[in-house]
Amino acid sequence: MGLVFKALLFQFPLFLFLFLFLHYSPTKAEDFIAINNNAKSNSSTARSLASNCNWFRGKWVYDPSYPLYDPSKCPFIDGEFDCKKYGRPDNMYLKYKWQPFSCSLPRFNGLYFLEKWGGKKIMFVGDSLSLNQFQSLTCMIQAWVPNSKISYIKRDGLTSVTFQDYGVNILLYRTPYLVDLVNEKVGRVLKLDSIRSGDAWKGMDMLIFNTWHWWTHTGRTQPFDYIEDGGKTLKDMNRMIAFYKGLTTWARWVNRNVDPSKTKVYFQGISPTHYEGKDWNEPTKSCSGQTQPFFGIRYPAGTPMAWVVLEKVLSRIKKPVYWLDVTALSQYRKDAHPSAYSGIHSGTDCSHWCLPGLPDTWNQLLYAALFS
């Protein structure tokens, strides 16, 4: 029985992705979602409020009270996200608020956040999109307590901001794949079955995970030489299948190591890019020069296949994980990237997000999930 189960488990992702890629078109992800919506999942239930209001379906509206903080007064923003400092001339991208169709998000209150989470540890775990959200949250809180005593520590792979008057420690653990990336004799190996670095995530009161963007990197920007899967060392493999297997290993780690009575777990969701204007029916454009969101009801590019993979993994996880399903609302924000106004990236950055900006909404959704 054990051998049969292992064989089926090994074949499932291959069958799944053969099906997806043989039949994939820009709308096929939605077709696959519709097929799978017949089964009720932990993730789909988690995304809805008790009042049946879905925070993640809505529209962007102008709000003159935005942004939620002054970037020049926040000590945590890196140059790569500080678009105003590096010359972005327009301001409208700062003024949009996410408005769910059938309810309203609670206004973020950083003082209330600190009081409710006093003495606790919060850790973001993931890539530079986790850094984006981490710096957003610390700025949003700091704006409410500008005179509070703060400890700010940065070292390789780990950043920590502690609001000392409240004992709230917010950390960032950088790991682009969640699974291990190890230097071995043969070279740099991405191990799809291993999360030894997960020991650093234990003992937290809240964990917010994220991974996706680095799974697509190839050539010179790829940080590994080989992939290890099931004891076999491969030069490469289909990246969507690799993503599925890596996420499955992460889900197994959560099931084995998280005590839901002590630790809340969130997954940030798939953050989109805007390098190709065909995604919003402007094929000659990119995020460069964009000053307004996409205001259509349905984003033309449809649902990313990575979203489908994440949904599949989250639907099977045993421990409660709240999915911050930011993909669709972020797809509309083609205007919210640093583009040329970054202090670090040369060229056009249509991957990360300006601060203040879109990640502030991600944190408003986190706030709503915590306190509503």
Identify the notable features of this structure and list them briefly.
alpha/beta; 7-stranded mixed sheet; 4-stranded mixed sheet; 9 helices; 372 residues; globular; 17% strand
Mean pLDDT: 89
Q: Roughly what fraction of the amino acids lie in strands? A: 15-25%
How helix-rich are the residues, as a percent range?
A: 25-40%
Q: What is the molecular shape?
A: globular
Tell me about the biggest sheet?
7 strands, mixed
Strand order of the largest sheet: 4-5-6-3-9-12-13
- How widely separated are the two ends? 45 Å
Order of helices and strands: HHHEEHEHEEEEEEEEHEHEHH
Alpha-beta classification: alpha/beta
Low-confidence stretches: 1-15, 20-28, 30-51
DSSP summary: helix tally = 9
Instruction: Say how many strands there are.
Output: 13
CA radius of gyration: 20 Å
